[in-house]
Fold:
Amino acid sequence: MNFQDIPFYAEGCAWQTVLHIFTVPLYYISYCLAQTVALCFWAEDQKQSDLAWKKYLRFLGLAQSMSFEPLIADAELPSPSQGDTLRMLCRPTGGWPDKF
Structure:
């Protein structure tokens, strides 16, 4: 669908229609953090599958006993709050669909 003829969408305002950003913002933030961590594990899996799996299982085992930042530090994952993390994740994920 092309919404470029509708100024609201053409100006990048579509995110404002996602109501849970406003009604339950902490849920949305948590969801985005989880998705970023999942992409970090996916990127590691593309390089060293066995190691990524072991790190992921450890991550899950510690998840109930640690807060977020120490948990990702233990897993040696970059923090989503670091400036380059999302840019770093775009490299391996960007070309991945072209493989199929």
User: Anything to note?
Assistant: The mean pLDDT is 87. Residues 25-47 form the longest helix (23 residues). The chain is about 60% helix and 0% strand. The radius of gyration is 17 Å.
